[in-house]
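Hello, quick one for you while I still have it in my head. My current little project is about how a certain protein chain folds up. You're getting the sequence in one-letter code plus the fold written as tokens. Would you mind checking whether the tokens look sensible for this chain? Here's the protein in full, and shout if anything looks odd to you:
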Amino acid sequence: MESFNLAASAIPNGVTINTLAVDDDRSMRMMLQTQLEDLGHNVTTADDGKTAWSALQEHGADIDIVVIDREMPGMNGLEVVSLMKNDPLLKNIPVIMQTGSDRAEQIREGIDAGVYYYLTKPIDEEVLASVISAAVRNISQQKLLNQELKHHKSSFNLIRKCQFKLRTIPEAEDLACFLANCYPQPEKVVTGIAELLINGVEHGNLGIGYDEKTWLIKSGTWRDEVLRRTEFPEHKNKSVEVLYQRQEDGFYLKIKDCGNGFDWRKYIKVDPSRALENHGRGIAQAHSMSFDKISYNDAGNEVTAFVANDSDIDW
């Protein structure tokens, strides 16, 4: 078996990741801190759920990722997550939960609470790096997209309908920033839009499957390989078609690729069996965090994402 490429977990240039590590076991807490710092994180620690919640309340705007033990005396990990998910300022922080059990029902309970990343004890260094890298990609993409949002905002609320075609990952990211500004809460939808557009490029048009993407991410070559394949002769004329419409009841985004589709039902929610893997959460997170509804055609090569209109929104 190939060894994990720690470079694949590296934090992108210009991005700082502040991580809160929470564990009542001092040895485990110190080990986590060391490993996270080795991966380039700025680490703050807490020795129980109550202390973690106090840190989140005081410094939540500066915390990017929370790594937390499920079972702790007093306030346990799930209770902290529940409080986070009910707080508008904290609910989108990625949570990585440590657990002594890999039972599907326990992992499902955490996923239902909003935990998309898992580590099982004893924590394997390779698995830690893999799961951390998945969370880092998530928050790094969100940070970079949010930075881009600041350069795009103008009279986007005047747009009622527009169409686009794109071929590459950079085009997908740029368009995600543009389209997000058409919504009342750009920061809420930008990552979800990017995930759906990127899926149309990598899987739909280029045919990169789940297992192959797992290997590409593990080897640190995913983005370069997607860019390389985009220029293959057989893919030169393939594009992802995008239609945005603002209607009376809300905001519609339709995305169609040139692929044969996929079994989207496997990905609309996070499967506990994939909770330790290095990707496979994007569609589920878009469904639960960015949009009110996501619907695919039967084949899976066309998706419509909907956000309901809110008359109380302050533009």
Notes: The beta strands are 18-22, 42-46, 65-69, 95-99, 117-120, 161-166, 240-247, 250-256, 293-296, 302-308. The chain has two domains: 6-138, 153-308. DSSP finds ten helices and ten strands in the chain. The domain at 6-138 is CATH 3.40.50.2300 (Rossmann fold).
